[in-house]
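My current task is to audit a protein record that another person submitted. My question to you is simply how this chain folds and whether the tokens agree. This is what I was given:
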Amino acid sequence: FITVSPSKPGHDVELQRRTDGSWSTIETTALNGDGHGRSSACVGWDDRGAARFRVRWPSQDALNATGWSVRLTIEVEKPAWARQIDQAIGRRTVSVSVSEDGSFLYRTADEAPKVPASNEKLLLAMASLDTFGPAHRIVTRAAAASFAGGVVNGDLWILGRGDPIVGRASMGRLADALVAAGVTRVRGRVMGSTAYFERDWNAPGWNEVAQRYVNRPTALTFDGNGASAPEHEAAAALTRQLERRGVRIAGAPGWDRHPKDVAAIASIESKPMRVLLAKMLRPSWNFAAEVLGKGLGAEVRGVPGTIAKGASSIQAWAADRGATFSLFDNSGLSYSNRVTAAGIVRLLSQAEDEPWGRALRGALPKGGQGTLEHRLAAIPVRAKTGSLSGVSTLSGWVFSSSRETWVEFSILCSSLSKATAISIEDRIVRILHTAPL
């Protein structure tokens, strides 16, 4: 409540706050007929300690020079729930950031670079949804250089574009589409194309056992790429499906780079992007992450898609939104990846305002589901886990009972046992759900 004497009805006064060594105006209010004005200021997490305010009178007539009130100092203390989080963390190496509607509610070491582990998949999901949209479908085509009168004169090529869940059923649908297009004979072979992606299968920061946890990511996949040549497996499956439908095929299936002059005869589509991302995020499927990452890289950086192009596309996308990360893969297997809890929370907060934000939250595992199967079952949370040796992470949204809204959080633990890290992460999420934030 501001009073100016003698009364100056209609004149303006400024409420100012001192930050970073200087005074800045945070609100301007007009005086009423009694020379009174009302102004308010909210203090946030970064105002802990002494928050300093004053009222400034800007000169508005010949009789009164610019002037200032005495300084008002308000002591801002941590709320009880924040102290509970501090106690849960103790002296351990943990970064935590919490925000709601873009304003930080809690921060500790949240600008420290940390290994994200599979929280990298959360970043991939955001960049993919922003680039392609939730309804985007990946197309797998069958093509040939010459097709006339129901006859493919030469080889029939399967052209993959990074659908991670192509399998026997997919080849059945593609065979149906080819028969519907009039194909009765293939004078060559059915061939699986190795183009569109490079067949790279490594990244900086992957250790000697990383490839045990992710099969080779190719543009044409087949049954999760358990075989060394999934393109050949896909060609063999399509050959069988076509022959069952009465299509005559001259040669044995194979795999290679397709020629440039082929044209599509038939095609099938993947599940929508939001479904593919849910299948990746909930079980933390490394293979799908690297396949979708290569697809993102091909779209943003150009063909052929590579692991490095996918990672750099995510990194650039995050940087454009104020989060500076260093990323080398798409799945989070790399120990060289670096993110910050504050950066992840900023991106999650911005996602709230995106048309794909709801799809992202819905694709994440809820408590008791996927990688959260044995965790937080009774808590309304949507979050991505992450785990490497000595690394544990959890980032996403939890519903705050006191605010009656979702709040964004990121918890990045290092140099802790898995059991200790999970205990801290789950304790923080429960506090955020139940405490009066």
In short: The radius of gyration is 29 Å. The mean pLDDT is 94. The chain has ten helices and 21 strands.
